[in-house]
Amino acid sequence: MPDKNEIEAIKEKLLDSCCNFQKECCQQIEQNTMEQHPHIAILCCSDSRVPPELIFKKEIGEIFDVRVAGNVAIDTSVIFSLEYAVEHLDVDVLMILGHTGCGAVSSAEDLIGDENPILKEIRSSFSLNDDHYISNIVRQMEMLPRRSDVICQALEKESLTLLGALYHIEDGRVEFIDRDLD
Ligand SMILES: [Zn+2]
User: Residue 158 Cα, ligand 1 centroid: separation in angstroms?
Assistant: First the structure.
């Protein structure tokens, strides 16, 4: 555990970086102070290598992110957050963004953490595709409208489009994933 001085150094570095951010992005910050109008909501893994704003070259106010290990929407805080974007921010697109090299997917494959609800959820997708990075995305695309009336209704009204995408951590590529609607 870092000692008091080390913690102070960490805080100082963070504030330094934030000062640079304020200088570089002052216009973006100003333009988005009063309200937000993102056009896309993304459910993405928490993995530090998968930051949606950097991947899609977006700025402040452009993406509504919900990030959780394994990009699964199984609890109310995740689902309510996505519903907020659909209902109150009127996003046009909801994207489930998975990624190669996902630790949650490989832990689910290795049968680690049998009681972990995230890993259980990922494991239950495995029959959908041999590639489990893809099966996990497809399952979330299938389950999200079943778990959320708000999202289901927006899709039925065609005011919302649901997309699945796989980010390749090896080369920064994004591949869209099709799922068969039943
Ligand atoms: Zn991941």
Answer: 29
- Residue 60 inside a domain? The answer is yes
Q: What are the tens digits of pLDDT across the range 133-163? A: 999 999 999 999 999 999 999 999 999 999 9
Residue 123 lies in a domain: yes
Full residue range of the structural domain in which residue 23 is found: 1-31
> 109-112: which pairs have CB atoms within 8 A and are 24 or more residues apart?
none
Contact 63, 36 (CB under 8 A): no
Do 17 and 68 lie in one domain? The reply is no
Ligand 1 centroid to Cα of residue 95, in Å, is 15
182 belongs to a structural domain: no
Measured in Å, residue 100 CA sits from the centre of ligand 1 at 8
What's the CA gap between 58 and 32, in Å, rounded?
Answer: 13
Residue 90 belongs to a domain? yes
**87-123 pLDDT, tens digit each:** 999 999 999 999 999 999 999 999 876 789 999 999 9
